[in-house]
Amino acid sequence: MGLSIGIVGSGNLATHLSKRFIECGIPIAFIQSRNVKTGKALAKACRSIFVKELPETSTTNQILFICSSDSSIEDIFQANHAKGYSLVHNSGMIPLLHDKKNKTKSAVFYPVQTFSKKEEVNWKAIPICIESNDKKLEQKLLKLARKIAGSALILDSKQRAYLHLAAVFANNFVNANYAIATNILASQKLPAKLIAALIQQTAKNALNNSPQEIQTGPAKRKDLKTIQAHLQLLKKNPKEKKVYDAITEYLLKK
After folding, report:
1. Fold classification of 162-253 (topology level)
2. In which region does residue 153 sit, left (phi positive, over 0), alpha (psi from -120 to 50) or beta (all else)?
3. Which helix (H) or strand (E) holds 37?
4. What is the CA radius of gyration of the chain?
5. Considering only the top CATH level, what class is 4-155?
6. Taking Cα atoms as reference points, which of 30, 37, 95, 18 lies closest to residue 56?
7. How many CB atoms lie within 10 A of CB 237?
8. Quick one: which H or E segment has residue 13?
9. Which tens digit of pLDDT belongs to each residue from 12-63?
């Protein structure tokens, strides 16, 4: 594709994205990371090199992917915008960034997925959201996204923020409920696998139907007797009880 790619970071997203580039025949010029150990390991896995400091670039095709925590993205951008890169971050919540003179080519390349080094992902099922202040860079990133992932679309910063909010409800909050459920089972020496089929079927139902139409459970039925029995079981777990109360109240009103 005629692109030169650099990666900042060696965490979950940096690892998955870098390895996906390599799988698709897209070489990585270098890896830079504050964590030298994991940075060098990722560079080796991607047949690339590790650099302690980001070098300046003389090519207009050099794209730097900032795969770091949201709290450090802007600092990395501001520290490196004068080095000649097209700077691309991967956050759902950080808006499109600009330098003071608005000369730097800037973009967002946001894969809508949760990433963990312990689990593989199906890139062909992942949509990637693109935003850029440069049309040529935007087209390059759309082409790149379509090569490595299932689909690509252009979203502005506001749309992407709402998408990220929805993703937190669909992923982070749901997973927190899984953690609560497995802790409840463990308190009674019951294995987590007892709800494995339920989790799988719930996800399948939500993907194939309108979640609003397939809601089940005591709150949906307005079964107040069962709800009170559940709350009694949670009387020694005030934090979990607050979660149960909040979700139940939402379902009763909706």
Report:
1. N-(1-d-carboxylethyl)-l-norvaline Dehydrogenase; domain 2 (1.10.1040)
2. beta
3. helix 36-45
4. 22
5. alpha beta
6. 30
7. 15
8. helix 12-23
9. 999 999 999 999 999 999 999 999 999 999 999 999 999 999 888 766 678 9
